[in-house]
């Protein structure tokens, strides 16, 4: 029986307008009523997930955030950080320089803003809108950022991202975890950080097993949690690699794919357990 649901946000829980539809909200409410744990597992920074968590009432009803692709685990009801991994501060500058050399635009995060070398870049502006955080342009990320950050995001147009990813992988092989979260975003994380690793840790805290987890996602950074979950669900709009490892392919994020999966496997099955 499913006891926890891990939900990616962009391209999964939200539609193209970054909205949670009424049907999806009703399905999640029904899960909470049944005692199912809701886990928002996203590449977004924690401040960029909070608006979604509050929309779902997780700050009052309980739930969890796995932000920065799992580098931080937060209890929505208490705001307590249950676990965190950060990049060594001395690495921020070299990561940013390598990203720039490869043609990408690096960004990282503060509590109230996104810091970047180029606030005019369209993909950086998209990240600002997604996270509902303002942009602050700086000349040197390594000098500007004097606090712990869980990740650096590298933005680049899709047609050039393969080159950026290859250059970053070569430069930091065996030192950092690097993977795409979309066609135009590359995540640079502490080594070993991924959604599955953090979900394992959170499931242990909750006294649950991966077999009791349903995970829904659409992109490359969702692969590990889709593979981990007893029920891995790929969105209809998911990249082919995610669909290949999923147990079930639901409708796309414009047609309530999360709600469709919940209704099929959890809510409609409540009388069967």
TrEMBL record:
Xref: CDD domains: HAD_Pase
Keyword Hydrolase annotated: yes
InterPro entries assigned to the protein according to its UniProt record, in alphabetical order: Cof, HAD-like_sf, HAD-SF_hydro_IIB, HAD_sf
Domain of life of the source: Bacteria
Keywords, in A-Z order: Hydrolase
Single Gene Ontology MF annotation: magnesium ion binding
GO cellular component, one term: cytosol
Pfam families according to UniProt: Hydrolase_3
Stated name of the protein: Cof-type HAD-IIB family hydrolase
Organism field: Candidatus Allofournierella pullistercoris
